[in-house]
Amino acid sequence: MKSSISLTWRRIPERYRLEGNECLSCKSSFFPPRAVCPKCRRKGKLSPKRYSGKGKIYSYTRIHVPPDGFETQAPYFLALIDLAEGARILGQIVDCQENDISEGANVESVFRMIQKDDPEGLIHYGFKFRIVK
Amino acid sequence: MRDVAIIGVGMTKFGEHWDKGFRELVVEAGIKALEDGNVHGDKIDAGFVGTMASGKLIGQEHIGALIADFMGLTPIPITRVEGACASGSLALRQGIMAVGSGEYNLVVVGGVEKMTDLGTTGVTTALGGAGDQEWELFFGATFPALYALMAKRHMIDYGTTEEMLASVAVKNHENGFKNPYAQFRKKITIDDVLKSKMVADPLKILDCSPISDGAAALVLAPMEEAYSYTKKPVKVLASTQASDTIALNSRETLTGVKSAQIASQQAYKKAKITPKDINLAEVHDCFTIAEIMAIEDLGFFKKGEGGIASFEGKTALNGEIPINTSGGLKSCGHPVGATGIKQLVELSWQLRNEAGERQVKDASTGLAHNVGGSGATTVVHIVKRD
User: Fold this and answer.
1) Do B125 and A126 touch (CB under 8 A)?
2) Is residue B149 less than 8 Å (CB to CB) from chain A?
3) B62 catalytically annotated
4) What is the pLDDT of residues A26-81, one digit of tens each?
5) For B152, which of A11, A59, A64 is closest by C-beta distance?
6) Are residues B217 and B249 in the same domain?
7) Domain that holds residue B347
8) How far apart are CA A15 and CA A74, in angstroms?
C-alpha cells in the first residue's frame, strides 16, 4: 500500500522501539498502546511501557499467497507472540525453517524492513521476530 | 417494538457476472424481492443496503442514492451501512428496527458486492480493510492468515485436524451442488481439499470462500400486515449484534469468536428458545475453521467438538442440525455485502418449504450468523415460519 510519510512516521515509537502501555489500575498490558483501558475505562491509569521483544509463540501460520507488497518475501511465517512483559503481538518470524517453528518456541525481536511502497516510495521498517534456541 | 416479518425475498445467482455491473445486480435482486412480496415500489417507505468495499472495488460510494435512483424508488431514503463481511446483516438489522419502531411500514433491505471488476491482489487489499490496517495488514497478514492463526490454535487446543476442516468444504459443496444460485455447483472430496494449493498453513484454497459478484434483497413489513401481502410470512424472532477487538492479538480467545457467542446468547434469550430449537442455520464459513468455531459459538456443539461433529456428518443436510444448506460462503459464493442477506433468503425459502432438492424436512425455525472481519462484528438473526 502506498502511504503518506506522516502515517508511518507517527508509528515510529511502537514499530521501532516496541513502545506500548499498561494500565496501572488493573495491570493490563497493551500493544499497540491504547488511549483508554477497556476494563477500567476512564478510571484507568495508563502509563508508557517498553517491551523487550522476548516472548513465546502462541499460534503461527506460513503465508504462501502474500498481499500486495510482500511478493518477494513469500512464503513467510506470521505468528501471534505472547511477550514476556504481558501483551500479545502479531509479527513475522524470520531466519526460520519449517521444522524450527512450534507453539511455545522462544523468540526475540529484530529490526527489519517490513515493506516497500514502490521504487520511489517509502521503505517501511519495524519489528520481526526470530527463534531463540 | 412491534413484530416484523420478511414478506419477500430475492437474489441473483452468485458468481462471476462479467456482463453485469453493481447496479444491475442490486436492481435484479431488489425487483425479485418486491415481486416475491407482491409489493409495488410506491408502497416502499425506505431502504437499507449493505456493501463492504464498493469504493475500493468499483470506485463508487454514495450507493444508497445510486440504488434509489436505479431501482426507480426516488425520493425515498436509502441508507448504506458497513460492517465488513457483516454489512448485509447490519442493513437487515437497521430495517427491522425501522419497521419495528413504527417509523416506517414497508422497508426493502439489500446487500451487494461487485468484486470481479478488480484483480485478485486488489480484492485482497480491499478485503484487508476488515482487519487492523496498521497492526495486522501492515506486517503482511492476510485474511486467510488471520483465520489460519485461529485454526492452528484450535488444532493445538482441541486436536482438530486438516481432514475435519476439509469435511466442512466437502459438505458445503454437496449442498451448493443442489442450489441453482450457487457459484460452484461441483462436488469435491476431502482429498481434493487436502491436495489443493496452500494459502496460509493449514488453510488451502479449498478451505477458503471465493471472490464473487452478487446481490440479495428482502422486503420487511409489520407482522400484523404481513398476510395482506403473502401467505407465507417469515417472522423475525431476534436480531442481535455484538463487537470485539478489531485485531486478533487483543482477543481473549483465538479458538472462538466472542462476539458470536454474545450475539447468539442474546438472540436465544430474545426469541425465548435454546440452540436445540433451531432446525437449521446459515453460518459464516468464510474459511472452513470459521464454520467449526461458529457451530460451537452458537451452542450447537461443545467448544472443541465442532471439528469432529462436521467430520461425522452431523451438520449435513440430513444430519442433526443442517448447516449452510445454501452451500454457505464456500460453495454458494461470498459477494461480501450480499452474504448476510442471502442467508435470510435461503432460510426463508427453507421455512416456506420452497428449497427444492435441499429442503430440510419440517423446518420451522432458522438462525443466521454473519461475521465481519476476523470476528470484530457478529450479527445473529433468528426467524420462524408463522
Assistant:
1) no
2) yes
3) no
4) 999 999 999 999 999 999 999 999 999 999 999 999 999 998 889 999 999 999 99
5) A59
6) no
7) 125-209+238-385
8) 21
